[in-house]
Design a protein that fits this description.
By secondary structure, this protein is α+β, with helices and mostly antiparallel strands. The chain has helices at residues 3-15, 21-32, 37-44, 50-89, 108-122, 136-139, 174-182, 222-237, 290-295, 312-320, 333-339, and strands spanning 126-127, 133-135, 166-168, 187-196, 207-217, 244-251, 254-267, 270-273, 278-288, 304-311. The chain folds into 2 domains: 2-89; 108-339, 2-Layer Sandwich (BirA Bifunctional Protein, domain 2). α1 (3-15) runs parallel beside α4 (50-89) and α5 (108-122) crosses α10. The chain is elongated, with a radius of gyration of 40 Å. The structure holds 3,4-dihydroxyphenylalanine (DAH).
Length: 355
């Protein structure tokens, strides 16, 4: 029997037995390694008489292919066996109860800020932000607020230094100044955020929220202000008709200035917006004072426009029937579970598991 045939028979026999991966690798080396049996046969080729060589080579190649195929199929067999063993061992017990999924809730104030931002962005306002720690200039001076104005008083404002140069912003109006100093007109922005005043009772908290609005262009007038607020209030309260009135008022940064009330009535203990004979104040507004425009290098001879400031907490309380402002800031998880909102991107199948 030729050497090739012998190798083939011997190794077919070996490979027919139960082997592990190390044993197979050893066989691979024995046959095809640098000095392996098959590799050595190839080295013989040169020594064989020419008329025999072709036959020998073809026989050798066939045996090589057959052995290699057998080895590959043996390895696959072992791998499949291992996977099956693993599956058997690591089986998942689907009868186990699932773990509770604790989904968070969106705070009503965050929810209302999102709603306000989306309503105004639909009519071309972009959303700006400013820092809670503000300087005296942006918060008061640039907004045309005189030195003796009561808002500057320590009883009203949280100052952060002896010199009264840094403070917690008392309103979102300084974002008007920051925006206009940073860019060129026209401006059409809203700026929601936290604001602070030294005040605390059932309807006032030392920290509260406002949204500022500012629209400056060459021909913006009070009619635009009225149209914009009317649109916003209807969209926000999801009603077709509202009653709205402008009462003359005074703010140092607007001239003329107004406070805006909306009509409401109470039916079955619930507030209905847009009907009835009662009035509720919801915001301050006016035409931006020429001095403010001068302070931010905008020419009041060329540009004009309106501004407004809305109390966000009040709107949230009205829309969602919450009657104590202080609950907003108590961080009571049970309260948040009742008044908070489900995040929209949590699949509904997950919701409710925590409750
Ligand atoms: N900043 C005012 C406040 O906190 C609200 C306000 C009134 C803002 C009139 C404005 C405005 O932009 O034009 O009471």
């Amino acid at each position: 029997m030729s050497d090739i045939k012998k190798i083939k028979d011997e190794y077919f026999l070996k490979l027919s037995k139960e082997l592990d991966i190390n044993q197979i690798n050893q066989i691979k080396t024995d046959l095809f390694g640098k000095n392996g049996l098959v590799s050595s046969q190839f080295k013989q080729l040169g020594k064989i008489a020419e008329d025999e060589r072709k036959k020998f080579a073809s026989e050798l190649n066939n045996v090589k292919d057959e052995l290699q195929k057998l080895i590959v199929s043996k390895i696959e067999e072992i791998e499949i066996k291992e996977i099956n063993q693993k599956l058997e061992k690591e089986k998942v017990d689907i009868t186990l109860p699932e773990r509770p999924f604790a989904d968070g809730k969106i705070h009503p104030v965050s929810q209302v800020i999102d709603e306000i931002s989306s309503i105004f962005s639909e009519i071309g306002f972009s959303v700006e932000e400013g820092p809670d720690v503000e300087n005296e200039y942006n918060n008061f001076t640039a907004l045309n607020t005189p030195d003796n104005h009561p808002a500057r008083d320590m009883h009203d404002t949280f100052y952060l230094d002896e010199k009264k140069e840094l403070l917690l912003r008392t309103h979102t109006s300084p974002v008007q100044i920051r925006t206009m100093l940073n860019d060129k007109p026209p401006f059409k922005i809203i700026a929601p955020g936290r604001t602070y005043r030294s005040d605390s009772d059932q309807t006032h908290a030392p920290m509260f929220h406002q949204v500022e609005g500012l629209h400056i262009d060459k021909d913006i007038n009070m009619g635009h202000l009225k149209g914009c607020l009317n649109y916003f209030i209807k969209e926000f309260f999801e009603v077709d008709k509202i009653k709205m009135r402008f009462r003359p008022s005074h703010f140092p940064f607007t001239e003329p200035s107004a406070e805006v009330d909306i009509g409401y009535e109470i039916k079955d203990g619930k507030i209905i917006i847009g009907e009835g004979n009662k009035w509720l104040e919801i915001l301050g507004c006016g035409m931006v004072h020429p001095n403010v425009l001068k302070n931010v290098n905008v020419d009041p001879g060329e540009f004009q426009g309106y501004a407004f400031g809305i109390g966000i907490d009040r709107l949230a309380m009205l829309k969602y029937g919450i009657n104590d402002l202080r609950a907003f800031f108590d961080c009571d998880y049970r309260w948040l579970n009742q008044f908070g909102f489900d995040p929209i991107d949590v699949p509904s199948s997950y919701r409710g598991l925590s409750r």
